[in-house]
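Not sure how to ask, but would you mind making up any protein sequence you like and the tokens describing how it folds?
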Amino acid sequence: MNMTVTQLEPYILKGSIKVIDRFFSVPVDYAKPDGPHIQIFVRNLIPLDEVKGSGTDAAESDLPYLLYLQGGPGFGVDLSLSVDLGNALHKKKYQTLWLDPRGTGLSTPITADIFQTKQMDDEAIAKYLKHFRADNIVKDCETIRHFLLDGKKDPEARKWTIFGQSFGGFCAATYLSFHNDGLKEVFTTGGIPPMVDSPDTVYEALVLKVEERNKIYYAKYPQDIRNIRQILGFLEGNNIVLPNGGNLTVSRWLQLGMQFGSHGGIDRVHQLVFRAITDLNTFGKLSYGLLDSVQRAQSFDTNPIYAVLHEPIYCQGRMAGWSAHRAIQKNDKFNWKKVKLMSDDVPIYFTGEMIFPDMFEDYHHLRPLRGAAELLAYDEDWPMLYDKEALKKNKVKVNAATYYDDMYVDFGLVQQTASVIGNMEQFITNQSFHDGIRKHMENVLNTLLTCLNESAIR
């Protein structure tokens, strides 16, 4: 495989953190190593205060590596998280690596305009996007690990630790399935994947959890039952265009419910409802400020992988077939056409972390990907992401934070997977939502590390 590594000039952050930025050239398709390449960006943070000896490159390399795998799919690393979580991990004597998964951030990012520039048709775009799931993300990680650690004499020193949040935990399970010889230990937060071959089971379970969160929302803000009905009536009767050219439709407004699964999400949605109803009652229309706020609350325009591959990340030899759309159609509480005919004290339910076909019309920067998304939705040719037999025999220590009330990763499906993976311990809590590593970082991280230390003693 032809691989080049570009290392930029190191620099020092406040707090004696040395930063090394690297770009790795890797194949789009590992089965065709001499084919087209993309670049993978990873940032290395080295806590110099933890380096023993003279602070030489050799001494720095003795600090064990911890690779952070970002949630998503389709998001690059949040640099604010790399600072906050990084500082906590550095105190545990790790040097950290912050990877922009392929197609995100600085790793040859995928955007609709790039495909248009290359004049790729729908079939070519779909074929390209199939290489951006967990299996290839893990292969990218292994490329980086070999570059950084193959020079170590001790075989154990050639292993590293990985930390997967949400979809990053899905990647960790793929890593354990096929490349566990490169792993020393694994941490996951809200990231134990359902062991399924299509997303249908996932969304059948998550619809019930989204129902629960809607009930909590309307119990807290009962006035929003009528307010939201008024807003949706306005959207239905008017063509509302967002600042970037997208459409604010009934369906897109209800997609704000995706925030219900994070700390403070219910309150953030209520504030948008409050502002919208105030606009309508004052001006008879929605203000630019409100429209801009809604647009910024939804990340699909800037993170298209999140939409295009959200369901295929579950697929192993089966198609997704717009699974969430099919699941939500079975429940009239989410159906505005039916709810609007009922009395005005009947709430319409928001949807959750779900992808629908009409999003590829309503989101301006998803429109050029509509044809490719349709092809991917009905594609059955997806390779395996997990090896259950390998996971059962796993010897790598896995410590997982699992959130009982997680709206994005169903607790019941998580427990089925946890029963399969060997050498796993869970920290199960109902005190955090899916973003617990952000909101309760110290508690979550300390508990995970305590589990690791206690298992080492045993």
Summary: The mean pLDDT is 94.
